[in-house]
Write a structure and sequence with these properties.
The protein is of the alpha/beta class and 315 residues long. 38% of the residues lie in helices and 19% in strands. It is built from ten helices and twelve strands. The longest helix has 25 residues.
Length: 315
């Protein structure tokens, strides 16, 4: 079986051909370069055609697509907040119309769902029927596989973990992205560091060498090892929130593994043991001791998961 997979992000589209055993061929990439709406749909078709040309005369059994947003199962439309014009975009219809000669299924899933599928297929969660992928990047989302099935919810918004309520009282800061995300996402780490710098006039550490508005998660991680008090405080709070959030997820879902990935894990991988110790304090005690916390292992998890969407369906 041969399938084409696409991983559509906020800045690029990657594509490749996959065999049913996970072997990948003809990897290619195109930058979005300010495209929007149907222009991005056309670029997706262009990437598919490049893979088709490179893989000819292989018979293609389907197309799997990973998107940075939500796929509405009732309508087939997609929403991707980082792609202008993709509020209710008919991506599957567009691809089927432009590639009508293929006459193959086009299956689309959110990036967090594709990432957990990729890790289950070829990564850190191999052999698991119950696992969650904690995607911590600019925001925070969770891909959930329970009893071998991807969970979606009534309107396909499941996994919006950034909105988890972890600390009262409610602050207006949470209006934009939620409590958890405000403290422990990539953007949240920068927000908390900037707030501390604004409030502490006595701080004279390395972050004073930059304008406060330019401080980001990169600076927080860069200065943590030297004991910078702002970095230490921000990351200790993040570990607390990562531990509490994952404890809640473990208590509710009883997974075999919690996989930590996204751009922040990365530099936050050394904190996974600390996160697990924090989760032990809060979670259902039997469930958490049966759960392994580990870092993501698959570099192309979005592509792998997109391919596996089709292979699972065909199987």
């Amino acid at each position: 079986m041969s399938v084409i997979a696409l991983d559509i992000g906020g800045t690029k589209i990657a594509g490749a051909l996959f065999e049913s055993d996970g072997r990948m061929y003809h990897h290619c990439k195109q930058l979005l370069e300010q495209r929007s709406g149907n222009q991005v749909g056309d670029l997706a078709v262009e990437v598919i055609r490049k893979v088709l040309t490179a893989s000819a005369p292989a018979k293609i059994d389907g197309i799997g697509i990973c998107i940075p947003g939500i796929v509405y199962s009732k309508t087939g439309l997609v929403w991707a907040p980082n792609i202008p014009g993709w509020d209710d975009y008919p991506l599957a219809d567009h691809i089927r119309a432009e590639l009508s000669e293929l006459s193959v299924p086009v299956i689309i899933e959110s990036d967090r769902s594709c990432h957990i599928l990729g890790e289950v297929w070829k990564g850190a969660a191999q052999g698991c029927d119950n696992a969650v992928f904690m995607a911590v990047g600019t925001g925070i989302g969770v891909g959930i596989l329970i009893d071998g099935k991807l969970l979606h919810g009534q309107s396909d918004i499941i996994g919006a973990a950034g909105w988890m309520a972890l600390q009262p009282p409610y602050l207006s800061d949470y209006n934009a992205c939620g409590c958890f995300e405000s403290y422990a996402s990539g953007e949240g780490l920068g927000i908390q560091a900037r707030k501390m710098l604004e409030e502490d006039a006595t701080y004279n550490g390395p972050m004073r060498q930059k304008k406060i508005a330019e401080i980001s998660a990169y600076d927080v991680f860069a200065h943590y090892a030297s004991g910078d008090p702002v970095s230490v405080a921000v990351l200790r709070k993040a570990v607390e929130f990562w531990g509490m959030a994952s404890a809640n997820i473990v208590s509710l879902l009883n997974p075999q593994k919690v996989i930590w990935g996204g751009g922040i894990f990365g530099p936050a991988v050394p904190f996974i043991d600390d996160i697990y110790r924090e989760a032990l304090r809060w979670a259902q005690p039997i469930s958490i001791r049966q759960t392994e916390f580990t870092a993501a292992r698959v570099e192309e998890a979005g592509l792998l998961g997109a391919a596996h969407l089709v292979i699972r369906e065909k199987s």
